[in-house]
Amino acid sequence: MDWFTQIADALTSPLLQRALIAALIVGATAPVVGTYLVQRRLSLLGDGVGHVALTGVAMGWLVGSWTHAQPNDAYAVIGAVIAAIIGAVLIEIVSARGRTSGDVALALLFYGGIAGGVVIISLAGGTNANLMAYLFGSLSTVSTGDLVTTAVMSGLILLVGIGLRTALFAVSHDQEFARSSGLPVRLLTILIAVVAALTVTASMRVVGLLLVSALMIVPVAIAQQLTSSFRRTMTAAMVIGAVVCVGGLLITFTEPLAPGATIVVLAVTVYAGVATIRAVVRPRRERGVDPHPDMADDVHV
Fold first, then answer.
1. Cβ(253)–Cβ(262) under 8 Å?
2. pLDDT < 50: residue spans in the chain
């Protein structure tokens, strides 16, 4: 049986169909927020929020244990959303007002989030193994309810990320300029943090909380190798993210590999290939070309 026949047979399974749709939605959505985070030099924010979301997952288990909910993780996603939003907003406030720098605040989220999750899951009567599906993703267990939740959160992310692109770009690129233009800078930076938190929780079923930041950042890094404007970078990153997620998942249909890790490895491999080709080809193509060409702005404030 050839590879295409195996894929065609696999796609007849409703379970794998749901997994493919979830991967496509998340792959196209996550780079939207990642574009703003890269612009703000906060590429590791997703990692910090992901660790805090683990504490939220464990708190959901604890509430499920107290209320005898079935299944035990019935409130895990709700807990992850609440914890991720609180963590993302806190890091914005701490880095903006406090004496703690952004990287130290992120480190506090890393350590506190992972340790809190392990302690609370123990209090809930669970084990560390119960957290593995959230740490490394579990596309094979995506239910119809999970798919609807992912689609709704992704819709909100796209609505904010694309609908407010002009204002969010201004804040991410130059806060002083945005403030002088009359934009509510603090509100918009917190909005970016909240949308990043939603992206983390929407993506945790696909690649897991430990790798979710890669899905937000690596497609943007690839797109930056290919385009120069903000809007084109975001659009290219969305296409690359969707292709990488679907491609990585299709590989796991026929090979015994972990879907989340395969998607991330594929994305990093594509980045390495594009960067290598660009390093070899670009100097020859741009020889004799004006290094500062006049380009029309694609974002107007």
1. no
2. none
